[in-house]
Amino acid sequence: MLLNYNSQTKMAKGEKWGWKTAILHLAPFKLSGKNVCPSASKECAAACLNTAGRGQMGSVQKARIRKTKLFWKNRQEFMQQLDQEIGKLKARAKRKGFKFAVRLNGTSDLAWERFTWIQGQTLMQRHPDVQFYDYTKVLNRALAPLPRNYHLTFSDSGSNDQELAAAQKAGRNIAVVFRDKLPRTYQGKKVIDGDKHDLRFHDPEGVVIGLVAKGAGRKLVSSFIREAR
């Protein structure tokens, strides 16, 4: 399987809102030998949630590297398997009475809205009844028109303050990682708890998505991990 289906605590929290969620975890940054996070800073690469939860296990890391190498080596096979898994999982969610969402960039930042496959279609076009969503640090992705069923939240990298301001000016929500607690406001915007669920397409507009550092990030002193004041 390429996708993890409702297997993480944060993903499972979406059930309260009527959603089942699947997530794709690749080997982030350059761990596979290919960079899947083109706008990653050194700080965010060091604090990546790749090491959170089951990501600490060697077997999980090896699996993520295998998936990432398949993506680069045989894109056709990768996309075919991913397409089939989405089809099966959305049917499973529907049978249980849930809507279905997919986060393709669990630990990557690839432009899935540009990857075409069967008959020149993207995954969003292939599955118009699925809600896709991601975080991104690539500003032109966050500001560009997106498929109606794909939602992006722009993320702080610890060194992209001007881009964060541009995203906010354009009306996009931003996500910021804090050390161990969330402030009420950040740069004049209300902070909401992004760890209550991962359904970013349900967030109100004009807010900051506050996330508490996880995995290796909890121990880092870094501009990527903001202090709540």
Notes on the structure:
By secondary structure, this protein is of the alpha/beta class. Helices cover 28% and strands 19% of the residues. The chain has one domain. α3 crosses α4. The chain is globular and about 50 Å long. The model has no long low-confidence stretch (mean pLDDT 89).
Main attributes of the structure:
globular; 28% helix; alpha/beta; nine-stranded mixed beta sheet; 229 residues
Structural class: alpha/beta
Work out the radius of gyration. 17 Å
Order of helices and strands: EHEHHHEHEHEHEEEE
Q: Biggest β-sheet: count, sense, barrel?
A: 9 strands, mixed
Q: What's the total helix number?
A: 7
Q: How are strands sequenced across the largest beta sheet?
A: 1-2-3-4-5-6-9-8-7
The first-to-last residue Cα distance is 42 Å
| Quaternary organization | single chain
User: What percentage of residues falls in helices of 4 or more residues?
Assistant: 25-40%
* SS elements, strand count: 9
What number of structural domains do the residues give? 1
Sheet-strand content, in percent, reads 15-25%
